Amino acid sequence: MTAFARRARASAGRMHPELSLVSYTLLGHLEESGGCRATDLATHYALDKSTVSRQVAALERTGLIERRLAPEDHRVQVLHLTEAGRNILAQVTESRRAAFRERLAEWPEEDLERFAAYLVRYNGWPGTGR
Length: 130
Hints:
By secondary structure, the chain is mainly alpha-helical. The protein has six helices and two strands. Strands 1-2 form a two-stranded antiparallel sheet. A hairpin with a 2-residue loop joins β1 and β2 (73-81).
């Protein structure tokens, strides 16, 4: 698991120098959710608000996310991907998928099915809601 995490961090960094694994994860969540508050990110990933604040500030500086006022409450700022953020996320995602395809290309079908079942089981554990 440590090697897997190390490779994931390295691949995110190769695609964009300021895109850490945490940043990539936050961008992915913003894309899936259609935008959310920084406090929602902190809660979802059980991260300290200051950690999320630093990550959000870095993503804003690089132009990958932007803040918009919530339509229902103008006191609330919602984070959204910019076009550049959507593009870099798509590039990193495709690069990771290509790496997975290459790494798994020689695996027999039964091994792929077993591996997929194990991943579903692992990700289905109640403690992995993040």
